[in-house]
Amino acid sequence: MSLKYFRTLCIITFFVIVSHGYAKAASTDLTIVQGSNKYVITENGFRALHLDSIVVLDPVYKKHKRYAGYWLSDILALAGVGHPDPNTVWTFTALDGYKASVAVADVVQSGAKAFVAIEDLDKEEGWEKIPQGKEWISPGPYYLVWQTALEDVTPSVKLPWPYQMVEISIGKSDEAQQKLFPDSNDKSESVTRGYKVFTQNCMACHSINLQGGVVGPELNVPKNILEYEDRKFLKEFIGSPSSFRARSKMPGFNGTLSDQELDDVLDYLAWMGKHKI
User: Fold this and answer.
1) Per-residue pLDDT tens digits for 249-264
2) In the chain, which segments carry CATH 1.10.760.10?
3) In the CATH scheme, what is the code of domain 181-272?
């Protein structure tokens, strides 16, 4: 075989693979982590579970969607995780490092059931793509969705809908909270409010004291963000990132967070500058 022919064959093979959707870096494995224990569920491992289907009102697509997949409770049981402890936190990690956390106590309060979708039943092949920054992406390999007691009822607490999920970790809520909101006598009311706003809106992408997502920059160590950026700029940027950077992956919070909530978040960040790990 000539070198020229071999190169041509490689190029043809590559385009055939891409055209059939097999050239993707996404792993089909799902990792469950609890403390020092790690359990990896492979594609074959999922065959031990009952494949189910549900219809949900999806806030990502803003419409009803049909999915096939597995109940999170069955997945955790397969991994040897017992009955959900209300004093723990579930953290869902995506391919790009996005991390969404929810307290198990809040899940119980909401009455919603977590479902790990593996297939979009509204599409003959693949997934309906969703916009993220400069590109359109697939929610696969695993997309966490929620079924409520009544189909069109929004749960009383904010629940995460992370897509491209590859890992679920179970940790004690007090351990993470101590790093994110340490015990101290100098907490003001605005700092406390800002902590709540940050954990609900920012922590999935940003970390504080290395607790949170890695899509955006760490905001406290080794330097707190307010040590090198001023409050006026940060407030404007958080409100409308796309007015600074075209097609920014960071969503704008103008209209989502009030002026007071933005000030509270910045008060919290400034306070955390005195409580670095």
Assistant:
1) 888 999 999 999 999 9
2) 181-272
3) 1.10.760.10
